[in-house]
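Morning!

This is the sequence you dropped in the shared folder:
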Amino acid sequence: MRRLKAKIILFCSLFVALKVQAQQVINIESKQYDAKDTSWHGDIDFAFNLIQNQNQVIAIGNKVNLSHSKNIHTYLFVNEFNFIRANTQNLDYNTYQHLRYKRSIQPWLSGEAFAQTQFNQQIGLKFRGLMGAGPRIRLFYSDSMKVFLGPMWMYEYEQTTDESAKNVRNRMSLYLSFQYFRDKNFNFDVVAYYQPDLIDFSDFRLMSEIKAELGITKKLGFRFSFTQNFNSKPPPGIPNNLLYVKNGFLYKF
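The structure's back. Tokens below.
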């Protein structure tokens, strides 16, 4: 019975690693929608899974991604919630909520302000609250390529499993976004975030994400993604560097 429970917990742990990324930095840039029309865009997902035999496994997930544009104003709301429990053991609790406002100033320049809350059991994060503001600069924009730069100030309040850690910080949140797309045959996205403490630059977080989709034939395609989350000063027992690699084939008919 103990071996069976161990296998169940191991399976769920692998499921968590593949399904939910223990992100230090949330990639909101990939959620943004450059809409030129006045309407709502987005999606809402909810999942509930239950396995009941000699053991009980419960998995609950919810995702919300909504954006609305009107004239020079754009509003974005993103929510994600994941919870997995095997018998009496919580394997994962991971949730965040992000609200962002963007105002167009010039065709190449916008102003942004945001607020975010985050909990993540895997990285020892009990609570993180963020507020920030800054410019969003369009470096390049065409039918096949987009490049954006965002140097922002960010106020952070954080509680982790390290009780002695400093709770309040002022950080810079600098992001660079590159998107390349050519018809339906090839898409390539790169997003990078750099978030240093403005007082202590040795305390920083770095996130980079690469996604690519290649059309091999009219029906067969290949997808690849690589995500790296680095924290220079994580809570005790949490590794500095977290890596995720996903790839697979997609067949459409």
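Headline: The chain has one domain: 2-251.

More detail when I'm at my desk.
O.
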